[in-house]
Specification:
Chain lengths: ~350, ~350
């Protein structure tokens, strides 16, 4: 099918749809439930609560250093399940294909999606394909939804976060966002910045196995980046989060290119990173465990949770002009704020991303 | 928000995304798991096997007589679960919005989606929104994925179909497809043909409760219509299916408009219909039960299952020229065929839909 392209008839539910399903999708996706080609997969789940999530992927370009839309579609949904404490089990995949999309590209994406699912230990058990006319899509969009099981006794969430906790991350910040943006902007690096796109369930399951009581909360900082995710935490808990700028693991080339583009890595998307809020007495042990994991070699403790100040900050070493800004309309919904402690000891408010012109990063 | 439109920034994961989620999605979708705004919903499921499915909706136009893309997105996924014998429980919803899409239309769609979910007794427990640039989408596309529970002991499937079984349907054929096509073609009817779009889990659960042993198989004939769905059955079982043309419930206006457009209602999509293969001795009782249900008043027995003839048909009354055609490349994959028995006693082969120019019917 190398030079063939998607036709509208590939989406009409008839003979060409069936051929597409058999020749591409079932060639790579082999779960028995999927091969049945019935309306819904029938599955068994072990005991526990069900975790369920969905994400749609519209990343542009669809192939980028370190990944592609297929890998991303699996990793993204696996990670959303993993950070809630679930063991991801089953995924669905819904494709929107634009008329004219090369079948060879579709095959490459599906093969990558299948490979990533295998790596993550999840099965694709149901799928759907729709075709839209040229100009009503952009090659390929993929939705994945997933379910997993949360062991009884596992309790992660905002309600467990308390002042004194530490904030950890399993590695460098902003790689995915910068990989996409530099590819789009046509910027060449000597060593290309690769997306960190990866399924994180191996990391999160290891952490929950080894530190069941010390892990309070996990979240993957995707769209909006570390700064936006931590703003969600501060708004939902009422606590402040103080990030230590000198502790942030950021690749030199990411920092440089971000400055060139006028961007802050703290607002760039990550697709293989997890922010962990943990009890401070376990922080060192958790860091060591993370650093032994292939996806955690650059892990760092980047901040701490403090009682909310209601938007103001008045430490001895602070720079008053930066710190007394009134909270904006978004942050006003919660009392907590996120502050960046600079190497000189000043504190800068990190707000949620607003009106950033970076669509289709995932 | 009446005159506001979707901006790219509504999809960047930052402040505008959060506002959209709070002001539109959470206004109508109120499941506690969704309001938590965490990465995955945590849910409890009763005992049984898990059924899981996904479907993407790209219907054009998004508002049509009898429904809209929001209603369709819930009904379609609920129905895919219901026909496997599951009680649908939880749905996810993933939106792809095109820059410039009116927020008022989004609100109308989300309200309809929420209302249909409530009618069907399912909860929307996770969601996602992406925004693509103008010209890379078409207003709104929605993916829904769903899970449900199949009671132990419930066993529906191709393997239970056998010669002698009857084929039933809960009402008129082709209404959804014709509603969409006539709206697109600008055809006006005195009484507009409404889409049959509806969640069918009430019907299927009633049938499984009352006729647990006699229902062999159910399937909703959506894209490709009744003819394509029954071709899937015949190919998967090796059995022939003989439809009785005079028994097909087709609205007069649908038949007339389909002829005008050069289409066969048997290939038009349905979104509130279920094909039921059942033991013949229960057929009458099942028909009566269907006709007592609000979604079954036009129910009919439309055909029977017979042992496969390998593509040929040689009854005394047949018209040989129509019946000895070699099976095409698709049908060659199975031995069974679908035949339409005409009022004059002839038999016409009904193949799977091939190359039909009707994209975006659902």
């Amino acid at each position: 099918m190398t030079e063939e392209r998607i036709l509208l008839a590939h989406g009409d539910g008839g003979a060409l749809t069936h051929r597409l399903v058999k020749e591409i999708f079932l060639r790579y996706l082999r779960h028995p439930a999927l091969r049945e080609l019935t309306d819904a997969a029938l599955l068994h789940l072990p005991e526990g609560r069900l975790a369920m999530t969905t994400d749609t992927f519209v990343v542009k370009p669809i192939f980028f250093p370190g990944g592609d839309i297929g890998k991303l579609a699996v990793a993204g949904t696996v990670n959303d399940l993993a950070v809630t404490g679930a063991r991801p089990r089953y995924l669905t995949a819904g494709f929107i294909l634009e008329e004219g999309f090369p079948l060879a590209d579709l095959e490459r994406v599906v093969a990558s999606l299948a490979r990533t699912a295998q790596e993550a230990g999840v099965a694709i058990v149901a799928g759907d394909t729709k075709v839209v006319e040229r100009g009503c899509g952009d090659g390929i969009y993929i939705n994945t939804a997933g379910v997993g099981v949360v062991a009884d006794g596992c309790d992660l969430g905002y309600h467990r976060i308390m002042p004194g906790d530490v904030v950890l991350i399993n590695g460098t910040i902003g790689d995915h966002g910068l990989s996409i943006l530099s590819k789009r902007a046509g910027i060449e690096f000597e060593t290309p910045v690769e997306s960190d796109c990866a399924p994180l369930n191996g990391v999160t399951e290891m952490l929950l196995d080894r530190f069941p009581d010390s892990i309070r909360f996990m979240r993957d900082p995707t769209r909006g980046g570390v700064a936006t995710t931590l703003n969600e935490v501060s708004q939902s808990t009422g606590c402040d989060i103080i990030l230590d700028e000198s502790a942030l693991p950021i690749r030199e080339e990411v920092q440089g290119a971000a400055e060139l583009l006028g961007l802050d890595p703290l607002y760039l998307a990550n697709e293989g990173k997890v922010l962990i809020v943990a009890a401070s007495d376990a922080a060192e042990a958790i860091l060591s465990a993370l650093r032994e994991h292939p996806l955690g070699s650059d892990a760092a403790a980047i901040g701490r949770v403090e009682a909310g100040r209601g938007g103001a900050f008045s430490p001895g070493a602070g720079q008053a002009s930066e710190l007394t800004a009134e909270p904006g309309p978004v942050s006003a919904q919660g009392k907590g704020r996120v502050f960046l402690r600079t190497p000189l000891g000043g504190h800068r408010i990190l707000d949620m991303l607003a009106g950033d012109p970076l669509p289709r990063i995932c």
